[in-house]
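ok trying again, last paste got cut off:
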Amino acid sequence: MLEDLGNIGDFLGGIGVVITLIYLAVQIRQNTRQLRSDSAAAQTRSLEGTNTDISKWIEGIVANRDVAELWAQGLIDIDSLDATDRLRFDYLGMQLLQAWQAVYRRTTHADDPELWEVTLRFVRMYFKSSAFRALWAGSKSLLMPDFVSAIEQSTGHLTNQGSEAPSAQAAVTDASA
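nice, full thing came through this time. structure:
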């Protein structure tokens, strides 16, 4: 009789272990789903932030004719800018480089190379301007080394090209390529 009670106790204990394991499996599965959902949401927010960074830079050019003219003139003939406009041009360029750097960081951590590849089309377009290449040379020490390496690998063949300034039409053509 006592042995039968012990066997029943072992049996019930085994059932308890099985129920506990099933419960843990369900909890782990729910936790994994939640982590995937949170990760996807964080990635979406990060990529939206990337679009915001680039959009702010573009908005600054589009919304202010003087800034647009300064940017275009600097790309065409940097030496024609006075000291104040040269400083403004350099800071506009640095803003753009920092926005690109944010794209690089966000896309490489999100395993989303497509957005980075699209960004590189614009990078290559701007690197056709000798003024932009000079801006890069003077600014790259302020940027993250892995970003600098990625840009230089992508644009190494452009360093000896002519100094024509990129145009809006070139941006559309390069982006659709």
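cool. The radius of gyration is 28 Å. The CA atoms of residues 39 and 157 lie 37 Å apart.
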